[in-house]
Specification:
Blueprint (H helix, E strand, L loop, with lengths): L5 E3 L8 H4 L15 E2 L2 H4 E2 L14 H27 L10 H21 L4 H21 L2 E2 L6 E5 L5 E3 L36 E3 L7 E2 L20 E4 L4 E4 L11 H4 L12 H4 L2 H14 L4 H4 L6 H10 L8 H12 L17 H19 L8 E2 L5 E2 L16 H4 L33
Parallel strand pairs: 3-5, 5-10
Antiparallel strand pairs: 1-9, 2-4, 6-7, 7-8, 9-10, 11-12
Helix pairs in contact: 3-5, 3-8, 3-11, 4-11, 8-11
Length: 442
Amino acid sequence: MPFTSRMSVVSMLWLSLLSAGKVFAALSFPAPPHGYSNQFHEVNHFSTLANIAGNCRGHFPAIDTAWQEMLSMIDAGRGAARKIAETQEEPIYSDDPNALKEYKNWLRITQPFHALYDVASLAELRWRAQKVIKVYDHLMTRNRVTTPQGPRFWVVCNDDWIVYKTSTFTDPRDIGTPNQGRFTIGDPDPNKPDRESYPEGAYYLPGVKPYLWWEEGYSQPNDEHPFCKPGVRVASLILQGVVIFCEEAFKAPNAPMQAMEGQIRPGDRIDQTQYKNTLPQNWFRELFWYCWNKDDEALDDTKPYSWAKTIDIANTDSKKIMDTAQAYIFYATAMYWDSFYWGHGVAAKSPEMEKEKEKGKKFQGLKDKFKSIAGKKGQSSTNPNGRRIVKKRGNDDNTSHGEDDAGVQTPGDLGCENCEAEPNEANLDFNGNDTQDINIMA
């Protein structure tokens, strides 16, 4: 049975933008399609008013910046994956400065992808990238709404306003209806068969629909802190779309992700506590669980959210890794912190490319050889990797066919053993509709 809540122990890393005195570059992520909004206040129910239960008074700068960084991370991940998916032929090592720059960037975006999703060939790399793009697109669609639709999530702070109520408590789900005051949470309206009853009582979240929460085997009556227990920084109710920031989340005097990049040193691991538990990353994780609306059995295998455990999943279960939140988080983080190379989950100022260099030189030699025997203008030939080379052009530039590219059209023919694996429900929008015909490439 899917859990209806998830407690996340988060090392909140934060320096107030106001007290730090540091001016950060503007965060950027694409605007949504016309008619949609991804502004924080329009996507989330949120308040800083003291008289509103669950208000986040004093914490808006931290939460708003974390929201923007989360969207920027998602966009960085999908931008890199899109580059992979659109690449017809891998760049190879070259001494030419421009070509070398392109080659290094290719290694920057592909080496961590190879590791996190256990892919080898270009065919499988591109195939997997298309599936990963779907996930990032899905997360972006979950973070935008139409104006008539109104906010989708509830972002609240602390849990001292969440109170346990017995089964005889008047059902708040009837507020504003003709049945208001007629039924209790233990004996709800019988004409609503899908309405859950709470014979043991439940915790009441005033103003936050659907108002009630209780999880068998976890909840205890009259718990002083049903969510914000010692050490817990962030909690969420997955099915209800509620994210709760506990006071602990705002105590650690550390920087947001954008400033943190300046603290990274070569040799630092991407899964070090201060780098893997930022507020945007944890928000990303809660969003992922909410979007998939299921038990996080696959996700638990990566705890404590380490690079090594994530790689283990990729190496042993190609389908499971596509449903593993941490793989998407690590990749988006690596692409967001783009001043480093993260091929093995360790910060480096340059990619590992000695073997790649030798492979590039050999392949370039083969390309030159086949280029010289390609025949007269208008003829076609095939390179050693089975790629069909486009008709030779007047400028002697040989490029690969798009439509005839066997690596895209028939991945199984090129040893793409795991190409059938794709994330569950990754092509659904926030209303559960198929997004195949919707332009979600904001």
